[in-house]
Here is the input.
Amino acid sequence: MHAVLVEVDTSGQSSPEEGLRFLREEIVPNVSKQPGFQAGYWLRPLENQQGTAVVLFDTHEHAEAASENLQVGAAAGPGVTVIRKELREVAASA
Here is the structure.
């Protein structure tokens, strides 16, 4: 299993509520349809307005394909900018 770890800056959002709506209605349904999707966890932004997501895929290839548009500096949604992206192999889970 492989994970896509993404950190975003949400400071450009019009409101936190609108950001959560977009996440729940657009991002999560679209990501969960990607080939090899296993699970995803989107964490609320901290006080510094940085959010984090960990999305699990069955293979490195599926993780890479699903995240190819998430480059550092790219828009991840309205007012949201990718500040970090890493692909990692899952070492253990419970």
Notes: The chain is about 25% helix and 40% strand. The first strand starts at residue 2 and ends at 9. The first helix runs from residue 16 to 32. The chain has a mean pLDDT of 96.
